[in-house]
Write a structure and sequence with these properties.
The chain has a domain of 112 residues: Gcn5-related N-acetyltransferase (GNAT) (Aminopeptidase, 3-Layer(aba) Sandwich), CATH 3.40.630. Helix 1 crosses helix 3. It contains 6 helices and 7 strands, in the order E-H-H-H-E-E-E-H-E-H-E-E-H. The longest helix is centred in the middle third of the chain and has 16 residues. The mean pLDDT is 93. With 164 residues, it is an alpha+beta fold. It is globular, with a radius of gyration of 15 Å. 28% of the residues are buried. The chain has a 7-stranded mixed beta sheet with strand order 1-2-3-4-5-7-6, with helices on both faces. It starts with a strand and ends with a helix.
Length: 164
């Protein structure tokens, strides 16, 4: 399977929002935007100069299957936060998120001169935790947020060298 990261477009933002309305996906990932209008407003912010977020769409064999992005760029320690979602459930557990995240982390590390990246997920999202751990993220904290047990993981680039 050919995995590519492509520039996010307005159409990709719409597809992502619509596909992630699935109840099974909703149960796995916290999402800020609760309406399409809010999702598009967030997307538009990524296009501004000095945007604090940046993302790519994940394509598998030419089909849009998910998105990956970083946010809070340069705001604190860590230097940015990472989020990703493969919304095509038939492709879950096939390595797509790991491949996409490996490539994306290499890009944002250099692009934004990052030393560290954090990530949150629900503790019930074992697949995302496995992806993050494969990439070198280590668990730093568990907590309850909006009634859900969550975990915070962090990747310090210096601890894994230059190869992401």
């Amino acid at each position: 399977m050919n995995i590519e990261l492509s520039e996010r477009t307005r159409e990709c933002a719409i597809t992502y929002f619509q596909k992630t309305r699935d109840p099974e996906i909703q149960a796995l990932i916290p999402q800020k935007a609760q309406t399409l209008e809010a999702a598009l407003a967030d997307y538009e912010l990524t296009l501004l100069p000095n945007a604090k977020s940046y993302g790519k769409s994940i394509f598998a064999d030419g089909v849009h299957v998910g998105d990956i992005w970083c946010y809070c760029i340069g705001e604190e320690d860590p230097d940015a936060m990472l989020s990703f979602c493969v919304f095509e459930k038939r492709l879950w557990n096939g390595g797509i998120a790991t491949i996409a995240a490996t490539r994306f982390l290499a890009e944002i590390k250099d692009r934004f001169s990052l030393r560290s990246v954090g990530a949150f997920t629900y503790t019930s999202n074992a697949a995302s935790i496995r992806v993050l751990q494969k990439l070198g993220f280590t668990e730093r904290e568990r907590f309850i947020e909006n009634g859900m047990e969550s975990v915070y993981l962090q990747l310090d680039f210096s601890s894994i060298g230059v190869h992401v």
